[in-house]
Specification:
binds S-adenosylmethionine, single chain, 8 helices, alpha/beta, Rossmann fold
Length: 233
């Protein structure tokens, strides 16, 4: 999917995406803490919303993305102390080996149509990560919420959900933004991580437990799946 045409709209959507701010990003940062002075790569940073969140929590952040327009929007959006780069998929040769304490990749691998490409990206992330560094992947949890609706978006029901299947996420903007994702199973991600030299510390699927927001299906279906992986060698 080409993110260039929707870059500006995506940034304003994310700022108010309740589901994401209560059940997504805080759980990612939890596994990286303390982030102060840590070097963190935000792979597929988009318009930089999570990069800014990390920076505001004291991290030294690099954002990389294939979309020039997303990077342009990120640079217009309070870029202080964040280094943004446009890259080709899975190619960040300008970043030295073992140079990051942590890497995060939020809602990026679920947009990739081939497992081969996903592995290429994971290998590149493994290269730039320090030994014992944490790599976090957060994705839409297609396997658990096919056809469900959340405060900020909903998922078109897909009858035969098979690995590699094209699926649509509909962001509740006016007019709605339709995201083309690909379903990859929990096993696809874990096996790819293991094959590329990671161990899996844990997999988290946060669900709403309180009445802090007007939840829809968040109370019965976890909207996001978060893989926490460690580089062992
Ligand atoms: C749904 S957006 C998520 C943006 C950001 N991570 C966030 O949480 O807001 C997906 C982003 O991944 C980027 N992307 C897609 N394929 C990529 C790839 N192979 N390598 C790097 N970035 C990629 C897109 O350009 C887009 O900015």
């Amino acid at each position: 999917m080409d993110y260039n045409p929707i870059a500006g709209k995506y940034d304003s959507y994310e700022k108010d995406a309740t589901t994401l701010w209560l059940l997504g990003y805080p759980f990612v940062i939890k596994y990286l803490e303390p982030v102060t002075n840590k070097k963190i790569l935000d792979y597929g940073c988009g318009s930089g919303i999570f990069s800014r969140y990390l920076r505001d929590n004291g991290a030294m952040v690099t954002g990389a993305d294939v979309s020039e327009t997303m990077i342009e929007v990120a640079r217009l959006n309070d870029p202080e102390n964040i280094s943004y780069h446009t890259i080709s998929s899975g190619e960040a040769g300008f970043l030295p080996d073992s140079s990051f304490d942590h890497v995060v990749s939020n809602f990026v691998l679920c947009t990739i149509p081939s497992l081969h490409e996903i592995r290429k990206i994971i290998k590149e992330i493994h290269r730039v990560l320090k030994k014992n560094g944490v790599f976090i992947i957060m994705n839409s949890n297609w396997g658990r919420y096919n056809g469900k609706e959340f405060i900020s978006y909903k998922l078109e029901y897909c009858k035969n959900l098979l690995p590699g299947q094209r699926v649509n996420a509909i962001l509740k903007t006016d007019p709605p933004i339709i995201f083309e994702d690909y379903f990859w199973s929990r096993e696809d991600y874990t096996q790819s991580l293991l094959d590329c030299g990671f161990t899996i510390q844990t997999i988290e699927e946060p669900m709403a437990e309180s009445d802090q927001a007007p939840w829809v299906d968040e109370v019965t279906h976890p909207p996001f799946i978060i893989f926490i992986a460690i580089k062992n060698f």
